[in-house]
């Protein structure tokens, strides 16, 4: 298996790489400035890293998202990656009243049959590092899968397209079940 990780210049990028490598995935890391969208078809899946700012300001990130949708490539979007997927789908990104940086918080699943959360309890702790959040519109293709205690959307998916996104950091030590989530995504991609 060969995954592309689009690095949005985040300090957590290589934590995600190490988790993927533990799942026996070969990972190529390319920054959002250097990514070549014509090569996306060479990969089994694309992972969109966290990062600062907003998706339209993040190099070629929105172009990558558009191509993954067009080519039906499985995607995992983390934080900024989730926001990019939402914007592409016509959903809204808004600035939270309370910024969450380096905080552990319990979130709850609302879609218990999500393969991304296989063998993960209904409530679990995650590491949050975000000021922006996603609001899905009525006609969004995304299904909400988890929310924070304050009803902030924490994850979403389009399972038939193998597109998954989280607003928290699965690669943070503040997310004890994070490696399991990454393993679940790899299993979804491989069909195992």
How would you summarize what this structure contains?
The chain has 4 helices and 9 strands.
Task: Walk me through what this model shows.
Residues 4-186 form the Glutamine amidotransferase domain. The protein has 192 residues and is of the alpha/beta class. The protein has one domain: Rossmann fold (3-Layer(aba) Sandwich), CATH 3.40.50. Helices cover 22% and strands 35% of the residues. It contains 4 helices and 9 strands, in the order βαββαβαβββββα. A hairpin with a 4-residue loop joins strand 7 and strand 8 (153-158). Helix 2 (61-71) packs across helix 3 (80-88). The longest helix has 13 residues, at 178-190. The radius of gyration is 15 Å and the shape is globular. The two termini are 12 Å apart.
Question: How many domains is the backbone divided into?
Answer: 1
* Main beta-sheet annotation: 9 strands, mixed
The CATH C-level class name: Alpha Beta
End-to-end span in angstroms? 12 Å
CATH topology: Rossmann fold
Give the helix proportion (percent range): 10-25%
Order of helices and strands: EHEEHEHEEEEEH
User: Which architecture does the CATH hierarchy give at level 2?
Assistant: 3-Layer(aba) Sandwich
Strands, count: 9
CATH superfamily: Class I glutamine amidotransferase (GATase) domain
How large is the count of helical segments? 4
- Tell me the fraction of residues in β-strands, as a range: 25-35%
Which structural class is indicated by helix and strand composition? alpha/beta
Strand order of the largest sheet: 2-1-3-4-9-8-7-5-6
Low-confidence region ranges: none
Indicate the mean pLDDT: 95
Radius of gyration: 15 Å
What overall form do the CA principal axes indicate? globular
Domain Glutamine amidotransferase: 4-186
Protein name: Aminodeoxychorismate/anthranilate synthase component II
Keywords: Glutamine amidotransferase
GO biological process, one term: tetrahydrofolate biosynthetic process
């Amino acid at each position: 298996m060969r995954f592309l990780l689009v690095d949005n210049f985040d300090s957590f990028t290589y934590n995600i790489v190490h988790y993927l490598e533990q799942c026996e995935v070969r990972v190529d890391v390319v920054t959002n400035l250097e990514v070549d969208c014509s090569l996306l078809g060479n990969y089994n899946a694309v992972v969109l890293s966290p990062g600062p700012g907003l998706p339209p300001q993040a190099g070629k990130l929105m172009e990558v998202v558009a191509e993954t949708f067009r080519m039906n490539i499985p995607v995992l979007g983390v934080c900024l990656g989730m926001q990019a997927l939402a914007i592409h789908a016509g959903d809204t990104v808004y600035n939270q009243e309370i910024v969450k940086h380096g905080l552990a918080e319990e979130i709850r699943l609302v879609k218990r049959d999500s393969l991304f959360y296989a063998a993960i309890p209904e409530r679990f702790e995650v590491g949050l590092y975000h000021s922006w959040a996603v609001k899905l519109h009525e006609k969004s293709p995304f299904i909400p899968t988890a929310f924070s205690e304050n009803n902030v959307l924490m994850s979403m998916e389009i399972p038939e397209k193998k597109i998954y996104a989280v607003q928290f950091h699965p690669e943070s030590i503040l997310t004890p079940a994070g490696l399991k989530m990454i393993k679940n995504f790899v299993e979804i991609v491989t069909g195992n």
